[in-house]
Amino acid sequence: MASFRIRAARPEDCPDLLRLIKELAKYEDMEDQVVLTEKELLEDGFGEHPFYHCLVAEVPKEQWSSEEHSIVGFAMYYFTYDPWIGKLLYLEDFYVMAEYRGLGIGSEILKNLSQLAVKCRCSSMHFLVAEWNEPSIRFYKRRGASDLSTEEGWRLFKIDKKHLLKMATEE
Amino acid sequence: MNCFRIRPATPQDCPEILHLIKERAAYEHTPNAVTLTEEDLLQDGFGEHPFYYCLVAEVQNEEQIERSYTVGYAMYYFTYDPRIGKLLYLEDFYIMEPYQGLGIGSEILKILSQTALETNCSCMQFLVVIWNQPSVEYYMRCGASDLSTEEGWHLFRFNEETLLRMAAE
Known about the structure:
- The complex is a heterodimer.
- A 5-stranded mixed beta sheet of chain A has the order 1-2-3-4-5, with helices on both faces.
- In chain A, helix 1 crosses helix 2.
- By secondary structure, chain A is an alpha+beta fold.
- By secondary structure, chain B is an alpha+beta fold.
- Chain B has 6 helices and 7 strands; from the N terminus they run βααβββαβαβαβα.
- The longest helix of chain B has 15 residues.
C-alpha cells in the first residue's frame, strides 16, 4: 500500500517546488510563463518575511518516481485579509504528480490546510480554478466549495507593469 | 477648495478605518456582515507580521486647519504567483461619496502603483463584481484586464463550516 506524508516545505525543497510548479504550468499550458528561479523561491519563502508557505507530499524511497523524486506533490498558500471578517487562507497552487493521484494525497493536503486555517483563525479558504478545469472543479465542489464568481459575480482583474509605470509617473 | 493627502495608516487610524468599512457595508445593505473589531484591525495590521497594509485619505477641516478627518482608505497586501513571484493585491478601496471625483482615487492608485514597482511586484490584482459597471469602466480606463473573462478564472471558497469538517475528517 502506498504511504506518504505531508509536511511543511523546507529551504532545501526549493528545487523540487520549482520542478512541480513547472509541471503544473505545463498542465495548464502556461509553461513558458514560469520565470521564477530557485533563488527567488528561496528568498521569498524562507527569508525574514515569507510571501508564501508550502506543504509538500513526500513518499518513501521504495515509491520514489522513475527519476528518483521523493517530493510528489505540493500546495502553496498564504494569508489574505477580508476587511469584513479578517484573515483568510488563500490556496495559490495545488498539484500532485499524475502517477501519485488517487492515493488520498490531495485529500490529506486539504485536511492539513483546513487544520492550518482553523488554527490561524481564518474565516474561510479561497482559491481560483479555471472554468475549463472540470476535474478540479468536481474535486472541490464534492468537498463543499462554492463558486463565488458564478454566485456573486466576482471577476479577477489585473493591472500589468506597463500600466503601473504609467500610473506611478502620471502628473 | 478641498485639499487632501494620502498617507500610510497608523495604529491610531484603526477606529476610523473600521468606521469606513462599516459605512461601505451599510451602503451595500450588509452592515451586519462586518464582524471585524478595532482590536482585530490593530493586531492584524500593526503586529509583528502585518496581514494587510492601508493607505488613508485625509481632508483638512476648513474651520480648524490643524484638524483633519479620514474620508477614504485603500487596503492591500502582497500575494504570490509561483510563475512570476510577488504581486500587490488591492483588497478594498473606498472613498466617502461627498469626496469622490476630487482625484483622491487616482492619487491612491498612483501611490499603490509606486509601491508595487518599488517592492518588485509584477502586477497589481484585485476583484471586481462584474455588474459594478462604474468600477469596471474605471479600472479598464486605467489599463486593467479582466483575467476571469480572458483566462477563465473563477474564485472559489470553502467556508468556515466546511473547513471545520475537513479538518476533523
